[in-house]
Design brief:
The protein is α+β, with helices and mostly antiparallel strands. The protein is 30% helix and 19% strand. It has one domain (38-313). The chain has helices at residues 38-49, 79-83, 109-116, 139-145, 209-214, 226-237, 239-242, 257-266, 268-276, 278-281, 295-313; strands at 60-64, 75-77, 88-92, 102-108, 123-129, 134-137, 148-153, 175-178, 187-188, 191-192, 199-208, 244-245, 248-249. A hairpin with a 2-residue loop joins strand 12 (244-245) and strand 13 (248-249).
Amino acid sequence: MCRMRRLSFVIVSVSAAIAFTASLLAAPTSAAQTEPGLGAATGTALAAKSRPHRTSPSDLEIGGNLIGFPEATTRFLTRDDLLALPQVSYTVTDDTNFTGPTKIAGVLLEDLLRDLSAAPGSALVVAICDDQYRASYPGAYLVRHHPVLVLEVNGKPPSGWPKDSGGHGFDMGPYMISHEKFTPAYRILSHTDEPQIPWGVVRLEFRDERAVFGAIAPHGADTNAAAVQAGYKIAQQNCFRCHNSGNDGGQKSGVTWAVLSALATNSPEFFIEYVRHPESKNPKAQMPANPTYDDETMRALAAYFRTFSDSQAGTR
């Protein structure tokens, strides 16, 4: 299970998001990172080392477009396989999964992408949790933020990790994702770039970025409208974590893209108020509120989701 997600969402979980449009030009690489080029020697070997079946609950499931295997193949890497890779180690101070400064060690997602993806130049890394929450890492995010697949916390394996910071007593293993330090890369309307820091990660997929986000691309004549595009980019980062369109996107909430579209189309006031203050519409709602989303941001999200209903009805 992942940060702020082991809680069930009742109707809609639009905590606003972005697959961001920042430049792919990287910020300077951290001195703690491994040398460029190491993956060229280890990539094929790492994929070949993977196994066709799980041998332990701590194995990491990998899938998607893997180098050396047919597309959609699922393989498994052991924890020892991952520990044998070049590691980075940081003391993090701004990860809300932890209650204070915490030392993490693990493997950069960009290194795993390079070593395991058959098409690293166009790939999207998707981290899937045991509750079907999904965090997506576009190439721009990887280059800007350098997320880490965490293998050790304060020098300990998952059995010694702290429980979830929400106070529910949940284990955060077998894997989680963090950063050395997260600095937002952009702002769209009143939504700011957010760290993707899931825990309870059990699977990584290496997918085609355009194909995955194409599943939620806006429909109809208003596709290129500024508000629709803003809503689309917000939804990519966060709405897609818990809500699915077909086989793509998170399935934690059980509320599909079509349902979100229907709400935005037929009950816009409800949709807007639920996004901002979910507890006002459902006292038992446990999704994070978004009280800072201004009217323009909410109009953009609603306009984006309406394109799915409007295109089906042929009213655009």
